[in-house]
Amino acid sequence: MIYKFIELEIKDYIATVTMSREKSLNALSVEFATEITNVFKELAAMSDVRAVILRSKARIFCAGLDLKDAAGGFTGTSRGPLDMLKRSQPLFDCCTAIEECSKPVIAAVHGQCIGGGLHIAAACDIRICTQDASFCLREPKIGLCADMGALQRLPLIIGEGFTRELAFTVGFYSAAQAEKMGLVNNVYADQPTLYEAAWQLAAQIAENAPLAIESTKEVLNFSRHTSVCEGVALAMQKNIFLLTTDDIKEAFMAFMEKRQPNFKGK
């Protein structure tokens, strides 16, 4: 697909998705959010992709909601709020598409990550950032409740206490504070170092059996909302399938021959 605000590169089983709505600092418009949804659905179906890096070409990671675009959908009638909500559906869908993408997604954050940007980062599997990064749930400052999934996802990442602090104070939290919370796994000095770290992490993921990684992500996502027993049952179900794949045969052969496995995702 051809994208207006996204640059997509695929190399060595790693997809790099670069948000490039630069003039608007990647502020989320309906059109931009639709492209994010589409690219992650596209990547989920691609057998030559095993891991995804999400990054920004703009001066910051994301400025949040494009308020001008959002206001354009308000009709001023009694149906206005409902019409606006329906028009905004792509904003909700883009985070879901990232979360449900079958490939692990690494968010490489630099600069400010505001509102919708934090929703997007929370939907990723792993987050890393630069020292200049900062994070903020901005919605209450414009009279709204955060509604793109961060209030649901963040408690599972950083716990209830830190989530409520972020949501209630509407403050900017530094990279060091984000690392302390567990929002990001690591902090790097600058963008080149950040992107090299993201690539190395993605490459480590891509070395593993892709069907097993996809199954692992599905089990992890499922297990957040259910009992341990039900999560284990799904993992066992996945292994019944994985035991029939060529990849597991390759894993055993590589072990016996004392070499690195060459997985094909079959």
Description of the structure:
The structure is a single chain. The protein has 266 residues and is α/β, with parallel strands linked by helices. It folds into 2 domains: 6-206, 2-enoyl-CoA Hydratase, Chain A, domain 1 (Alpha-Beta Complex); 210-257. It is built from 11 helices and 9 strands. The two termini are 25 Å apart. The relative contact order is 0.11.
Report a brief summary of the structure.
The chain has 266 residues and is α/β, with parallel strands linked by helices. Helices cover 50% and strands 15% of the residues.
Characterize the largest beta sheet: strand count, sense, and whether it forms a barrel: 6 strands, mixed
**Strand and helix order:** EEHEHHHEEHEEHEHEHHHH
Structural class: alpha/beta
Helical segment tally?
A: 11
CATH T-level topology of the largest domain: 2-enoyl-CoA Hydratase, Chain A, domain 1
Helix content: 40-55%
CATH class call of the largest domain:
Alpha Beta
CATH superfamily of the largest domain: 2-enoyl-CoA Hydratase, Chain A, domain 1
Number of strands: 9
- Average pLDDT, rounded to a whole number, is 90
Give the CATH architecture of the largest domain.
Answer: Alpha-Beta Complex
Distance between the termini: 25 Å
- Widest beta sheet: strand line-up: 1-2-3-4-6-9
Count of distinct structural domains: 2
Strand percent estimate? 5-15%
